[in-house]
Every structure is written in structure tokens, then in C-alpha cells.
Design brief:
The termini are far apart. A 6-stranded antiparallel sheet has the order 2-1-3-4-5-6, covered by helices on one side. A hairpin with a 2-residue loop joins strand 3 (73-81) and strand 4. It has 3 helices and 6 strands. It is an alpha+beta fold. The protein has one domain (2-154): 3-Layer(aba) Sandwich (Rossmann fold).
Length: 155
């Protein structure tokens, strides 16, 4: 099971040169709500980009760096699997793909495609398409609950 601890990004999509960070350990439950355009989907894009090298939404990779700075796009995610701490760092301009295990950077000699396959097979235990199917079912099951919660809060 994957336990997410933290995700942070800068110069990613509409966010600027200062890190935006979500600490999943701050509370026992994290609920992300907001109006249209507030950045909810950016969190999902950052998560899938860091883990799989592509955003959740249909956005071309060259569009991911902030259009003002056009460089130093960086996303980092920290999580635990089977008591092993992992950190995955991805970046564009410059291109970065780092996998850290228990605060040690893994060997960078292999091609990034080989590193990606290794990450999916040995750490994440799922590929991008499996994640999309899982997220679909999570949203399908939670949407009625969130809609009811929204109606209660708005009243």
C-alpha cells in the first residue's frame, strides 16, 4: 500500500517560482475542495507527472512549465511503500527524473524509460492506465458523498 506524505511543485502549469506544497500528514484526512480554476486538478496533474512523467489531464508536456518563467518546472512527491521511504523528483527545463529510496538517490545510469518501468513494476505496482481506472472508481464512489457534503456546507 502506498502512503503519500507530501507533494510539492513550482513553475508547474499556472503556479509560479515558489513551491506549492500539500502535506498529507498534517491531518488524518485530506479533502481538496475549491471553485473552478482554483487548482484542484493541478494537484492530480502534479501527482501523475511526478510518478509517471505525464499529467492526468490531456496537456502536452511542453505546456507543463509555467508560461511566464518557462523553466525550472519541478515536482516532488514523497511516499512510503512497505516501510520504505520514496521520493520521486521530475522536472522540465532542465529535464530531471530522480528516484530516492530512504534518502539515497538511486543509480542514474539506466535510461529514464528503464527507470520508469522499474518504478512502476517494483515500487508503485501499477502503470498509468491502472491508476486512471482506480481514480475513475474513486471519483465515481466519492462524488455522491462530496455532492451531499457540498449541499450541507452551502446551506
Amino acid at each position: 500500500m502506498i502512503t503519500f506524505h507530501k507533494i510539492r511543485w513550482k513553475n508547474f502549469l499556472s503556479t509560479g517560482n515558489q513551491y506549492t506544497e500539500i502535506d498529507f500528514e498534517k491531518n488524518s484526512t485530506t479533502l481538496i475542495i475549491g471553485s473552478n480554476g482554483a487548482g484542484k486538478s493541478t494537484v492530480l496533474d502534479a501527482l501523475t507527472f511526478s510518478l509517471y512523467g505525464k499529467p492526468f489531464r490531456k496537456i502536452n508536456k511542453p505546456q507543463l512549465p509555467n508560461s511566464v518563467n518557462e523553466k525550472d518546472c519541478r515536482v516532488e512527491v514523497e511516499f512510503t511503500v512497505n516501510n520504505i521511504q520514496w521520493k520521486v523528483v521530475r522536472g522540465i527545463k532542465p529535464n530531471i527524473f530522480e528516484i530516492h529510496r530512504n534518502d539515497s538517490l538511486l543509480d542514474q545510469d539506466s535510461a529514464s524509460l528503464d527507470q520508469q518501468k522499474w518504478l512502476e513494476k517494483n515500487v508503485l505496482k501499477m502503470n498509468y492506465n491502472h491508476l486512471l481506472k482506480l481514480l475513475f472508481w474513486v471519483v465515481a464512489l466519492l462524488f455522491p458523498l462530496c455532492n451531499s457534503l457540498h449541499q450541507i456546507v452551502v446551506r
